[in-house]
Amino acid sequence: MVPEFKNSSYSYIWREHLGSLDDYKKLLNWMSDEFTLYQQDYDDGLKVNFPNGYFFIYLIQTTTAEFEINIHSKCNKSLVKTYNNICTVVNHFKNYKECKFKEGVVCK
Q1: Is 7 left (phi over 0), alpha (psi -120 to 50) or beta?
Q2: Cβ atoms 53, 79 nearer than 8 A
Q3: Mean pLDDT of the chain
Q4: pTM (2 decimals)?
Q5: Would you state the pLDDT for residue 41?
Q6: What is residue 105's predicted lDDT score, i.e. its pLDDT?
Q7: What is the pLDDT of residue 40?
């Protein structure tokens, strides 16, 4: 991950996709629960403000549930920490979804 330096702040943007719009809504719910102690806004997706910046998740394409995640921070350390937290939630959600639909597999 190489953050981009703009106007005394760091930002990182990437795209992900899920199987359906319902999965996207569930992911937003998981993300909201993970960052429940921070101020949140639900206009056109999910925006979470943290002490050194914010991140914003919004839907790009509804058919494939493609969404974009933007992280903006005043310092690189905070950006990396937030990126890692978001990736953990996204990866956990994807693993849960895959495990949920496999027959005979017990999710841990």
Answers
A1: left
A2: yes
A3: 85
A4: 0.80
A5: 94
A6: 55
A7: 95
Residue 75 CB partners (closer than 8 Å, separation 6+):
10, 52
26's tokens: 């569930």
Domains of the chain, by residue range, sit at: 4-98
Which residue, among 57, 50, 52, 43, has the nearest Cα to 14 in the 3D structure? 57
CATH assignment of 4-98? 3.30.310.50
Give the integer Cα–Cα distance in Å for 3 and 10: 6
Q: Where are the beta strands (DSSP E) in 1-108?
A: 4-6, 9-17, 39-41, 46-50, 53-61, 66-73
Backbone torsions φ then ψ of 3, nearest 5 degrees: -70, 155
pLDDT at 68 over 90: yes
Q: Which residues, at least 6 apart from 51, have a Cβ–Cβ distance to it below 8 Å? A: 78
Radius of gyration of the chain, Cα coordinates, nearest whole angstrom:
15
pLDDT at 99: 73
Question: Which amino acid type is present at position 97?
Answer: K
Task: Give the tokens for residue 16.
Answer: 């992900």
Q: Is 1 a residue whose pLDDT tops 50? A: no
